[in-house]
């Protein structure tokens, strides 16, 4: 999650505030408390696998849902010169 937050700044934008994310998710019917956001951002805690929340966050950040929801998918995010994400998936040998 922190990588997604950092990309915004790297692309010259202002960092997202919790309230920005909370409001956008609320429009989709997804509730996000500040405590839950900290768990999600840090990747720990009991609720970090909530698929509905993860899909809403993926949509907010403009990445494929599998980036946040599919731990079995061996994907990595690669930087491009434009600082955009590209999804590279494949089998590892």
Q: What does this protein structure show overall?
A:
With 93 residues, this protein is mostly helical. The chain has helices at residues 2-10, 18-27, 34-42, 51-61, 66-69, and strands spanning 75-79, 85-89. A two-stranded antiparallel sheet has the order 1-2. A hairpin with a 5-residue loop joins strand 1 and strand 2.
Could you list some keywords that capture this structure?
globular; mainly alpha; two-stranded antiparallel sheet; disordered C terminus; 2 strands; 11% strand; single chain; 93 residues
Write the layout of secondary structure elements.
Layout (H helix, E strand, L loop, with lengths): L1 H9 L7 H10 L6 H9 L8 H11 L4 H4 L5 E5 L5 E5 L4
Antiparallel strand pairs: 1-2
Quick structural gist:
By secondary structure, the protein is mainly alpha-helical.
Strand order of the largest sheet: 1-2
List the helices and strands in order. HHHHHEE
Kindly state the number of beta strands: 2
How can the largest sheet be summarized? 2 strands, antiparallel
The proportion of residues in beta strands is 5-15%
**Quaternary organisation of the protein chains:** single chain
Number of distinct helices? 5
Rg for CA atoms: 14 Å
- Distance N to C terminus: 27 Å
């Amino acid at each position: 999650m922190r990588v997604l937050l950092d990309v915004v700044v790297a692309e010259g934008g202002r960092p997202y505030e919790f309230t920005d994310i909370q409001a956008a998710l609320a429009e989709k019917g997804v509730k996000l408390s500040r405590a839950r956001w900290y768990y999600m951002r840090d990747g720990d805690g009991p609720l970090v696998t909530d698929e509905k929340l993860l899909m809403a966050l993926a949509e907010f950040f403009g990445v494929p849902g599998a980036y946040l929801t599919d731990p079995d998918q061996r994907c990595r995010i690669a930087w491009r010169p434009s600082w955009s994400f590209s999804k590279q998936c494949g089998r590892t040998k």
